[in-house]
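Archive entry. Fields below.
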Amino acid sequence: MNYDLVVCGVGGQGVLTMAGVIDHAIHGAGLHLKQSEVHGMAQRGGAVSAFVRISDQPVSSDLIADGTASMVLSVEPMEALRYVPLLRPDGWIVTDITPMVNVDNYPALNALYDVLFSVPRLVAVDAALLAKKAGSIKVQNTVVLGAAASHLPFPVELIEDQLRRLFGRKGERIVTANLHAFRMGDAASRFGAALLAGGVASPVLARVLPRIAFEPHAVPEDLVSAWVQRLSREDGAELARRLFEAGEAIAPDAVPA
Amino acid sequence: MSETILLGDEAVARGAIDAGISAAFAYPGTPSTEIYQAIEDHVKHHHLDVRGMWATNEKVSLEQAMGVSYAGRRCVVSMKHVGLNVAADPFMNSAVSGTHGGLVVVVADDPGMHSSQNEQDSRYFADFAMAPCLEPSDQQQCYDFTREAFDLSEKLQVPVLMRLVTRLAHSRSSVTLTKPRAQNVANFVKDPSRFVLLPGNARRAYASLVDKQKALLEYSEAHPVNALTLRPESDTKRPGILVSGLAWNYLQEALGDALQNYNLLRIGCYPLPVKKIRQLMDASSEIYVVEEGYPFIERYVSALGLMTERTIRGKLSGDLPRMGELSQDAIKRCFGLPIATALQIPGLADVLVNRPPVLCDKCPHTDSYLAINEVIAEFNPNARIMGDIGCYTLGAVGPLHGMHSCLCMGSSIGMAIGVVHAGMGQTMCVIGDGTFTHSGLAPLLDAARDNTNIKVFILDNSIIAMTGGQPTAATDEDVVNLVAGLGVPREHIRIVVPSPHKKKHTMDTIREELAYTGVSVIIARRACVTYAKEIKDLKEIRETKRLIPVVSA
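PREDICTED_STRUCTURE:
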């Protein structure tokens, strides 16, 4: 088993923290790993990435070759797209949709989202929204980590253990915020997977997922079915577009009429 | 035996501690910074009796380390590749005088220039100094080789250079640690003459270094990391591969099972094992040389391309890229293997822009540049500002475009003097507090002696920020006193606060000093916003140290 993961974002977004949590979870799962990262000047608001390589055999290379990554995990939507050349044709992108605009020529958001939402295997969440709901905007990265967890080749609980270990000394409030953030992200991605399995088209799902204010637990099955039914109707795509453009968070049980 | 996940740099640090170092010194520089950082953290956390400090610069750090070695104890010194240029003088001569206690010089190269101005290869320095070099390929070897390097240094009485590269220094994996060794008892050698490099002694010491080369070569020929694998003969000779250090990681993945069709010589210990290379060449139809950094091995083996008995393929021959980092894909291309197809997303290029690093929000450097730029626009819009190395180097690019040279650490003041001597008139330069104490003091002494008409801006933010917040050797009033001590008249040492609120005062001060012909130093003093907490802690430590009357022995 080989699983290559690119963790990315902008300097200061907690990219390396996330990679560290994943490393220890991999180690806890008894798997081999190699993780390379960029330090130094790049951390001043520049693009930051870490390559995490997971295997049941010892890992040789510190770098991920073109077209071989199984997932790009990003805290920023444009940064997610930066690493597409590393992704396998059947690779996943898991990303926050909240843009970090610190360059003058940042692309127009509509154009950016259109390209992002055309990615066939995508989990796009509004991590800023869910982080605030979990108790702190600082746990934005943990939301995205949660959204990736069910795709990773080791048990989700191992990441939760690492979150407890890492944030334990910062107090119960921080631990809870991180666990909630993580579980909201996880609920989002499992909800997304269920919708795709139910036949909802990927670009439709991509626009709905970021607008749902997930709870820190799985969305009940009856609600999943209700969403599948609603989005499978003829106007599903149009509804998704409308929900996304409205920009407002809705509760998982507020299935639109 | 215990297992833990370590960064390459951290594995070196743990290797040094477990090898029984009594001290460590370093100057921060990406990608080497975490070595000393990890030693300091580990020593503090476990209350170990290991001393040391962030030195003023790399030359000083190596001299400090040499002092430890002279006193019979083990010491590690770490720096980035260009740092070894600064420390070249003590490094070359430490090989001549030889060591006493084990001395390991860890140098982290930066192929691809992630955070550097060149990609020089430190193996040349080891070769130049006739010192052995160990080149690990993974984190476990970082740990093991560091431990071994100390034994080698003591056995043959030479400094050992450990060469890391960015992808090893800043990559993590699992490392198994072994039982720590006790520290040496401090002791001097009976006859110190080899440490007194007067010509008479130096000739003897150099002869001894030349003598050691035979033992070093034997060491390298016998080293298990320099492993030669000759495949069973087939009808025709098989091609061979010479691979060193980190490149081994990429090669294994690029070739996979096909590696079995090649004769193979791995290199991780220098001087080059020439007998094994000879065996590889005799057994092979042609040789691929795969190495990270300069074509160091290829240059020797191919005799600059003059050797025609075998085809040698590598970076000099153009089969591998001459610049930048290697990768498994670069090696696949070299061997004619297919590259995987990536996911294709239409329109991707239209929504992707570069995101270069920028100065932080509310950074004092931004305010310094804004004030300087505005005054220059009044006086001489064509003026060029000599620059230096630090976060403030980011002021060279848009939107500030506030400095127009960046050569090496501490170069701004010397270059400004040169521009004046070239007849370009009054010249300005910017240098940070860390870089100023690293290597800006000597050129400022020249400027003061000559009363050269330069305006030196010392951007004093109280920290070495770019590498992650290491302490500077001097800040605040210490900087003023240093500048005054070098001979700059007190009335032309001006202090401004780079902030939007104080902009008028800053600009007025600059105007006044521009109106004066002679050397002026304008200190833009405001603490780094990103490392405010660290600066506060460091200042407290500094104050406490002042209260201790004598540094205990």
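CURATOR_NOTE: The radius of gyration of chain B is 26 Å.
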